[in-house]
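Below is one protein, fold included:
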Amino acid sequence: MSATASVVFGARGNVGRHVAAALVAQHGPVRLTGRAPDPAGFPPGAQVVAADLEHSETLPAALEGAERVFLYAIPDGIEEFVAAAETAGVRHVVLLSSGAVLQSEADQNPIARAHRIVEAALEKSDLAWTFIRPGMFATNALWWWQRSIREEGRVRMPYPEARTAPVHERDMAALAVTALTEPGHRRRAYSVWGPEALTLRQQVQRIGAAIGQEIAVEVVSADRARAELSETMPAIGVEAVLAGWLAGTEAPPAVSTFIEEVTGRPGRTFADWATDHAHDFR
């Protein structure tokens, strides 16, 4: 297998696909991984190989000749990934982690625990690393509201005035690409929030403006919201979402100009995200 500058795991994911596209366009050669080596859906011009972070036997071929890696957090098999990366001569890993690892009770949060297992394995390794720790993903709105907006023209939520600062996936990708390709980012952990704090009601209004439709907001109990969220998103995230919304009723969320400071481009607003994803809500 030919040498490559970068390997992108999760190259079909919300963030990974934008990392892949930017690296292919600007910083090739690039190798993209998937559980099946089907090039469909990947940027043209990249090498596509079969690899699975939970199946260590697939990693040596995926990492052969690589200098840098974009990685998402899968705790099962992380020790095997580290060993394979060190053997392959990988120099730098940029990990898409989670801001949950910084919470005061992170050891009781399954999302935080999973991400810290991966971070700790990289910290103990001989690899240089960068951790990107985003807060609320803007794309979570697809889990929460896509179906009800498309089918009913309404959303249901327990705390419509809760404020969050969602991060656009393109901004996370831009930060990852900068960390991978420019000096000064090794052994650093970056907490990333969106550039503005909005209530959930305001976020729904931004989606409505993007699709040219007024969307009704119905206030429901936390129990009903929990039941409905459980139908559209992984169970591990439901309680974290509800806790995050509740916290957003009690204190203003952190916002950040960090994306602009690192990448030179202003962070994208939630209105930008809604415009980019308008087709998902129609």
In short: The CA atoms of residues 124 and 149 lie 45 Å apart. The mean pLDDT is 92.
